[in-house]
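Regression test case RT-17, inverse folding.

Input:
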């Protein structure tokens, strides 16, 4: 570690003011930021702890599920309301990392960090979620802008995320056995936002929608409809865990599993 100023504001206004400081960094659950600080991959002058802002809780209406940004993965996974409205979202939250990560990590922190192998970005993009911040509301299609890159400004804080309730949805992932990160994760949804398929863990630019899968499922919602639908490996990750070609193959396998799970 190294010296930095630690701030724990009690209001959203104070938090945004603290983040306006040069080289300031927000911390939600700390599941990503703390390891990064320990490895000195990022050296902010100010760490702004958001845990004093509240921003927790789950509200379910007839057509949407709204989750406070500081709500933990464990709380989403355990919510009876989320399980009734969007069971796929609760199931996704329940397989993030391990128990310790699920009880500290938050939905807002995951979306703000936009790790290319994170699970929540796939849910937000496939369900057509709206990310509400201290300044505005951003549709998921406009929010994700590349690996570790979002539409958030430096002093902008996610306050909640709203998911339209789909008619059908499911999430499946082929996970790294050590980290449990998605080597390929696929969230499929059919609902108010149309037929949408979002893939995480595979793309060099982070989460992305698969137009070919969406067109096939819009015409015929079945796992069989995806047989033979190609995924280009041109922009997919290739690393010690899996080649781009293998990830392209997994996209179709995992997508068919997700559609079968959605029913």
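Golden output:
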């Amino acid at each position: 570690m190294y010296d930095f100023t630690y701030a724990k504001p009690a209001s959203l206004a104070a938090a945004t003011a603290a983040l306006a400081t040069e080289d300031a960094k927000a911390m939600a659950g700390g599941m990503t930021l703390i390891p990064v600080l320990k490895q000195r991959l990022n050296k902010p002058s100010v760490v702004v702890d958001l845990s004093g802002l509240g921003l927790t809780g789950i509200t379910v209406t007839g057509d949407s599920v709204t989750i406070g940004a500081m709500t933990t993965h464990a709380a989403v996974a355990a919510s009876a309301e989320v399980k009734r409205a969007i069971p796929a979202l609760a199931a996704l939250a329940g397989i993030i990392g391990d128990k310790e990560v699920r009880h500290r990590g938050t939905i807002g922190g995951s979306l703000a960090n936009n790790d290319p192998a994170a699970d929540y970005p796939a849910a937000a993009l496939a369900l057509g979620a709206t990310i509400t911040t201290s300044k505005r509301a951003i549709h998921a299609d406009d929010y994700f802008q590349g690996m570790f890159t979002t539409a958030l400004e430096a002093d902008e804080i996610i306050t909640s995320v709203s998911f339209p309730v789909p008619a059908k949805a499911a999430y499946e992932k082929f996970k790294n056995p050590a980290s449990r990160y998605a080597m390929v994760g696929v969230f499929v949804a059919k609902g108010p936002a149309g037929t949408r398929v979002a893939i995480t863990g595979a793309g060099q630019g982070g989460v992305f929608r698969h137009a070919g899968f969406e067109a096939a499922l819009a015409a015929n919602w079945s796992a069989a409809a995806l047989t033979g639908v190609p995924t280009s490996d041109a922009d997919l990750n290739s690393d010690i865990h899996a080649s781009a070609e293998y990830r392209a193959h997994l996209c179709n396998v995992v997508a068919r599993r997700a559609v079968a799970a959605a029913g």
